[in-house]
User: Fold TetR family transcriptional regulator from Catenulispora subtropica.
Amino acid sequence: MSARIRILEAAERRFAEDGIEAVSLRQIAAESGQRNTSAVAYHFGSRSALVAAVYEHRMTPVNARRLELLAARPDDTIRTYVRALVEPLAETLADAEKAGRRSWYLRFLAEAMRYPEYDPGTVALDRPEASSIRALIAGLRDATAGLRLPPGVFVERLRLLALLVITTLADRERHPGTGVGTETLIAAGAALLSDPKE
Assistant:
């Protein structure tokens, strides 16, 4: 495993467990086995760039899986798009469990959402590995068009959906084998977007 990947995985774990602002780049370098305490700065430059690199590292395969689901979708319903949001993230947990290893990505995302400067909804949305999210938003906008939600309400509900999905899956990641099931989460997310009331 390359030094860069070791740093990314150490950063993801420490950010998820201790908080993005609570961990120094030197601590991440040490935990990743780097003797040079400035290795993180050498590879990534800054904390923000490191957070963005963790997104890229984890979201690239999630994005590919989500694009597959979107291409194969049986219909253009709200539930279909919510499923395409939830399932690839839930699969990261299932894959880790099958491989007998821990995962931290969902807790990392939940932590990042607490800070405007790291929130994936703002800082990562324009990145190539977020193309499936952009497609999902467009699909959900079309699927909810009949509800005639004001644009502000639609955006608020998307944010609530993201918080619901990420924090629920982060809880499952923290406590493997427990928590809300994937189908229940999909149903709750679809209900959140389906209510015509403002």
